[in-house]
Amino acid sequence: MWRSTWRKARADLRGRKLQTVLAFLVIAAAAATLSLSTNLRASAQLPYERLRERSNGADAWVTFTSPADLTQLRSLPQVQDVGEPYPVSWENQGIRNGSVKRQVALVGLGPTLPAFDHPVVTTGRWLAAGGGRELVLDAGAAQLLDLRVGQQVSLLRVEGPVEFTVVGFAVTASRAPDPLNDPAFAYVLPETLRELHPGIAFGNDQEHTLRVGVRLAPGVPLLAFFEALRSDVHGDFNVRGADDIERNIEEANQFNLIFLRVFSVFALLASGLIVANAVGGQVLSQSRDIGVLKSIGFTPWQVTGTLLLQNIALASVASVAGGALGLALAPVFLAQAADVLGGPASPRLSAPALLMPIAAVIGIVALFTLVPGLRAARVSPLAAFDRGGVTGRSGVSRVGGALAGLRLPHAVRVGVVDLTRRPTRTALTLVALVLAVITATFTLGIEATFAKTMKDPTVIGGPPYDLGFDRDTVEDATARRILADDPDIEAVLPVYGTAVRIDRFGFGALVYEGDLTDDGWPLRAGRMPAAPGEVVVSTALASRTGARAGQTMTLQHGASDAVTVTVVGVYASTEGDVLAALPGTFPITDPPTDYYARLRPGADPHAVADRVVAASGGELDAEVFADTVADLRESWRPLLIGLNAMLFGIAGINLTSNLLLAVRERRRELAILKTVGFTPRQLTIATVTGGIAVAALATLSGIPLGLVATRIMFDVLSSAAGIGTGVGALPGIGWLALLLPLALATVAVASAFPAAAAARVRVAEALRYE
């Protein structure tokens, strides 16, 4: 009997070729999206793990900013191995290629790389002995600068530019690559570093540090190592663990992951709706077949099993195809991190990541098949033959009767009334289109937020200024004069950068030379600092440390400076873990390296940037904050447009499937309408009218739901980015009005084939057995 069940299931799939193909495409799309998000999640850490293996990387890196005895470090029982210490210069220095410049930290390493914890060369070669003017650059910075191996570059320093030849690009496991971490590492020979910094003892201050990689003994957590280091090793230091760096790199893909997860859920639900529609229609259209099956001995479970078998078989093939597609697309999203880490972008091939999407899709399809399947199993043979075995409402509902009384054209009235004959199926189709409208509303909200941010950078935690300038070799006084002389610059805010820490946790401190109380900073709580000793912490830092307005914090600055500050506010910042203060809070002696500029209304920021760069002889680098936002928008658009197109496609397929079922069920009625004078054109209008009504209702109900979902999603995304909630902007009425024609266009495409099928119904064939 089960062999007969399989034969019946296979025959049903072959007999509904178009609907089978449509269902296959939708289920495969849902599986592909879910597979993509699952594999990205499982593989987000893989490029960094591969890098650590290739570099024989450490578990933690200790950066000394005061003299220390490294033998004490090696003698700790928590330590298994210690790498070769190397000097790092964090002075103000950079490399320019055309209009693009990146800040760099110079690292001194010999021509023979150590076996433990060494950089990995991704392009070109490593430094050669005697290569005093050779340089190996961080691969991420090289990519941003568009450099080539063998190219001559100028290392821009306060003392003057120094010419180098780029002989290779490299990556290190000791920190996230540029642009995730700034400045980038640039490697030179130790003697070259000493030549550039005569008389400097590295490991004595924050600008000239000594760095060393440490492999911990098995089972030793990073915190236990830090406590032992603080207790038994003298000196001032910062510690960074591999887990911290790995998490930093993983966060680069967090927005893509959030988007894909949301769209995966929507796609799965939409796929389930199509299956429920298809099976429900199948039960109605094959009720006589079900009666025959039960008459010849099929049990209720075998009837249900027939429906389950054909849909699970279809879902199995479609989900495997979709899972393979998601796996093939994963390298596109992993490439952002893999490229700058010098490894392949192939995903991690783990059984859970491969099988979970397939199992989830098959489970959803089985669930949406089981309910109508059980209902079909309860139909008796006599009921199945009586009126075609139709269960539930087959006539016109009260709503349909009321609509029939309206003075509408006959074709339109027929199309609208037909929607009410199968309210459950219409509702499922409506939900699929509503999901597409919700996602389109969210996408319009993202566009509105980008537009708002380009006008006001504080929306996402940017400074309330239009331009940022980075000083290279030009003197501070000269930079201030150039900025003050430009007629379109209204205000300039010099910015000092330094580093502080709480225990082992180090983070940045920005010192602003100016009045911060009236500048429109994106405060989330409290106020901006008004006197030395007061600080505001970013939302990311507040989340990590628990800092709140009104409390005091003791920070370590430099080798021996313990600074007690009062937190007076919390503000959003794109800089991540950072605090802001006024001069006098920290003992800073170096001049500022950055300047924010606010322009007069109507001024062109690009023209101002060009003038300032030209006036400084290229030694002041400009950043138009609106351009940074525009670049981010362009990187997100392909993903959002693709996912929206997929969901509208699913909704369209759902509508096509629904209308095809309706045409099949109503062949007799369509034939009767033809006999009483309906033309093929009127039948086409009647079919399309139902879809238009669904589109209008979906748009009216989907937009409010989409606005609520948009607000929630923005809060999730902005919180993940560490800039707090309430950031996003909702789309305006003009943009939302575009959703109706978009839904109608989807209906027009989806209705084309069913409408043509309705118009081609032949009266003689449809009424042959009546």
Q: Topology, please?
A:
Elements: H1 2-15, H2 17-43, H3 46-55, E1 60-64, H4 70-74, E2 79-82, E3 86-89, E4 93-97, E5 100-108, E6 120-124, E7 134-138, H5 139-145, E8 152-157, E9 162-171, E10 184-188, H6 190-196, E11 208-216, H7 222-232, E12 237-241, H8 242-250, H9 254-285, H10 287-295, H11 300-341, H12 351-377, H13 381-385, H14 398-404, H15 410-419, H16 423-455, E13 467-471, H17 476-485, E14 489-502, E15 505-512, E16 523-526, E17 534-538, H18 539-545, E18 552-557, E19 561-571, E20 578-581, E21 594-599, H19 605-615, E22 620-624, H20 625-665, H21 667-675, H22 680-720, H23 733-736, H24 739-759, H25 763-766
Parallel strand pairs: 5-10, 7-9, 15-20, 17-19
Antiparallel strand pairs: 1-11, 1-12, 2-11, 3-5, 3-11, 4-5, 4-8, 6-9, 7-10, 8-9, 13-21, 13-22, 14-15, 14-21, 16-19, 17-20, 18-19
Helix pairs in contact: 1-11, 2-9, 2-11, 2-12, 2-20, 9-12, 9-16, 9-20, 11-12, 14-15, 15-22, 16-20, 16-22, 20-24, 22-24
